[in-house]
Write a structure and sequence with these properties.
Elements (H helix, E strand, L loop, with lengths): L1 H30 L12 E6 L5 H14 L3 E6 L7 E6 L3 E7 L5 E8 L8 H15 L6 E5 L1
Antiparallel strand pairs: 1-5, 1-6, 2-3, 3-4, 4-5
């Protein structure tokens, strides 16, 4: 009888453990939302035009930019072909989201406030864009343009 209760207890414990892991895994994915903030327009937009084989160079420069500006960074492939990527950089103050557009060779980056109730001064975004441009300019044959 005791053995049967022990087995039942272990089974129930395992079920709850699996449910807890599933909930934690799902909540972690929700917490790191890799899309544009809903209803939020970017404070600054940047277009980077590059050859398809220059993604690695772009990511290296974006990592340097993130390190210099104390931003966490995540780079994800968005399709099985390996040709489209999403870059998400963030801090307590700002979010920077970059995606391959529908046009081959065009990478779009948007700068956002992390908290719209405590916005960062727009001059800060100008400095960030200028800083990003200096890193991107190290990649040969790449164009960098700020969109209004």
């Amino acid at each position: 009888m005791l053995e049967k209760r022990t087995k039942m207890f272990v089974l129930i414990f395992l079920i709850f453990a699996l449910l807890a892991i599933g909930i934690l895994d799902t909540s972690r994915r929700v917490r790191v939302n890799l899309s544009k903030p809903p209803g939020q327009a970017p404070i600054r937009k940047v277009d980077i035009t590059l050859a398809q084989d220059q993604h690695d160079q772009l990511f290296e420069q974006l990592r340097k930019f993130a390190d210099k500006n104390a931003l966490a960074i995540r780079i994800s492939q968005t399709d099985p072909s390996g040709e489209n990527f999403l870059v998400y950089m963030w801090s307590a103050d700002i979010k920077v989201i970059g995606v391959d557009s529908g046009d081959p060779g065009l990478f779009e980056i948007g700068f956002y406030n992390s908290d719209e109730e405590r916005p960062v001064p727009e001059s800060f975004f100008d400095e960030e864009v200028s800083d990003l441009e200096s890193f991107i300019s190290e990649i040969p044959n790449v164009t960098f343009s700020v969109k209004e």
